[in-house]
Design brief:
mainly alpha; 60 residues
């Protein structure tokens, strides 16, 4: 599994959009791409990291 590129995800899906976020009359800049595959990738990475954290720490 590849680690999600959080900077790319943030740049694409989390910019402030004037009309959608602020009610400003302007052109929408929201991503038109389906966000569900990205969300699934992030959820799977969180689940993987939780499993890593839950593993017992080996005693030296």
């Amino acid at each position: 599994m590849t680690v999600p590129d959080l900077e790319a995800i943030t740049a694409e899906f989390l910019p402030v959009c004037g009309p959608c976020d602020l009610g400003v009359p302007a052109k929408c800049v929201c991503s038109q791409r389906d966000h569900r595959p990205v969300m699934l990738q992030l959820v799977r990475e969180i689940e993987r990291l939780r499993a890593v954290v839950a593993e017992p720490y080996p005693n030296p």
